[in-house]
Amino acid sequence: MRRTALIVIVVGFLAATAAASAPSAPPPLEHERLPAGALPGVQVRGQFRVPGLGKTRVARRLIVTGSGARRVALLVARGRRIELCYAGVAGRDRTAVFRCLARWDRPPLILLAGAGGNRKPVNHWLSVIGLVRSEVKQVVVQRQWGGDPLLRPRLISWPGFPWKAFGTRPAFRHHFPNIVWAMDASGNPIQDIDLGWVYGPACGEDRRLPSCTPRRRHSGPWSAIRDSLEERQSTFVRRRGGRRAKQVAFDHPVVRQLVAGQAFSFDGVAEWSRCNGRRIGAVLRVQLARPVSFDGEVPVYANDDTDRAAYLEGVARLHVEGATNLDVYVDLNRRRVVHIGPGITLSGPDGREPPPPKVDLQLIGALKPAGGPDSGDCGEYKD
After folding, report:
1. Residue 133 — φ and ψ, nearest 5°?
2. What is the DSSP string of 302-349?
3. Domain coordinates of the chain in residue numbers?
4. C-beta atoms surrounding 261 within 10 Å
5. Is the pLDDT of residue 7 over 60?
6. Chain centre to alpha carbon of residue 301
7. CA-wise closest residue to 330 among 237, 195, 216, 233
8. Which of 64, 300, 333, 334 could disulfide-pair with 314, CB 3.0 to 4.6 Å?
9. Which of 306, 317, 311 is nearest to 279 (CA)?
10. 44: nearest Cα among 56, 55, 58
């Protein structure tokens, strides 16, 4: 993601109900611990790896959808900090590497896709499995063909377990699941995931896939587990950039104040670069589960129209009501948050969007060059 046009409206957040004096910084986010006792589901055996714990032979299976080569199962385990770890297995596979929730992970929806086909150059079928938090009352699945009815899979819950599981049966080409929404009790979307990144075959011309050798072309059925949010990220973000950006972002007291006490999700992490191509850092796009209001000072980012500096930075006083999303710009070279602003409004299955937040902005002082020298032509990215 290269530098965007000057952002006029910038969102900064402190609780609207706070006293006139500056509030104390909210506590750091901690890992969410699963309740004590046995995890729900059926115990299964295999060769599994849990981050921080290493190899294990057992896990818990919550749900299964499909059968035979199109069988997809959702597994859960506890991590080193007693946090939720999850994985999917497809077909006859009994191996999996679990993913564990980090201290900044509070997603309303966790989603995996099962993909497969009769031969490796083609993806013939797709299904989804996932978990949702207690505040999610309904999951809605839209398929590729507009004439298909929306799917509303049943949510399966267990006493004392803070997550509910769901799954959809395998669907075939042109009827693949397309977008999945998590809806609250009022029917408002609080997270969506686009599945367009998981449609690919097992081999092909995409550099992320192995080439389709004659042996692969003539091999039998295949199946795999895919994560749409993971697939869409760049190599830099997947390897270390995304985690570093989240660490810096959630060390900022304003960001912690914004997300305190509620679920929130990331609509990906985008790279942020100078006009000369050198990387500045990353942009986090955050969707909140419920609207919040704030009043306080925040960092401000803007383009440098002279193309001599990476960007301009400053401070703004913001009063915001009804904010549901934001973009957080992180300069990884300086290890600091340099911008907090409104993000993309989330629309639901019916296409409706919530009303935009009410924003009152006042810049404090002048913007100053920051981020180091820059050169090149960014004119195509400016309005």
Report:
1. -80, 175
2. E--TTSSEEEEEEEEEEEEEEEEEEEEEEETTTTEEEEEE--PPPP-T
3. 42-231, 250-381
4. 10
5. no
6. 23
7. 237
8. 300
9. 311
10. 58
- In angstroms, the first-to-last Cα distance of the chain is 16
Q: Look up the pTM and report it.
A: 0.88
From 279, 333, 259, 330, select the one nearest 301 (Cα to Cα).
Answer: 330
Let me know: does 124 contact 220? Beta carbons within 8 Å. Answer: no
CB 8, CB 16: distance < 8 Å:
no
List pLDDT tens digits, range 42-99: 999 999 999 999 999 999 999 999 999 999 999 999 999 999 999 999 998 999 999 9
CA gap 263, 269 in Å, rounded: 18
3-class DSSP state of 35: coil
Give percent helix, percent strand, percent coil of the chain, each to the nearest 5. 10, 45, 45
- DSSP tally for the chain: helices H, then strands E: 5, 19
